[in-house]
Amino acid sequence: MKNFFKILAFYLLSMLFVSDATADEWAKQDCLEYEQMIGGLVWLSGETLEMSDKARKAEKEEEAKELFDASFALSQMASNHTNVYAQFCD
């Protein structure tokens, strides 16, 4: 459960970098910051997946499942934000 709170905190803090702009107001700097936030989500997803694998190998099945679910959720968030990026920054 503590991993969930870490991930939630990361997500909430990362949202500070996203501006409330309309499509025609997104500047290059906004897109760059948004791209970096997406990269952070992808990186964190990979890290939690790696932690899940280590927990599974240590036969900590409950922790491994929790970390895998967190990794999946992070990858889905990255995917959703990538779609937004493609709409407003490409």
Describe the model.
The chain has 90 residues and is mainly α. It has one domain (26-88). 79% of the residues lie in helices and 0% in strands. It has three helices and no strands. Helix 2 runs antiparallel to helix 3. The protein is elongated and about 50 Å long. The termini are far apart.
Mean pLDDT: 82
User: What is the string of helix and strand elements?
Assistant: HHH
The end-to-end distance, rounded to whole angstroms, is 37 Å
* Tertiary shape: elongated
Sheet with most strands: none
Structural category is mainly alpha
- Percent of residues in helices: over 70%
- Overall number of structural domains: 1
Number of helices: 3
User: Low-confidence parts, pLDDT < 50 over ≥5 residues?
Assistant: none
Beta-strand segment tally: 0
Proportion of residues in β-strands: under 5%
Any idea what the radius of gyration is? 15 Å
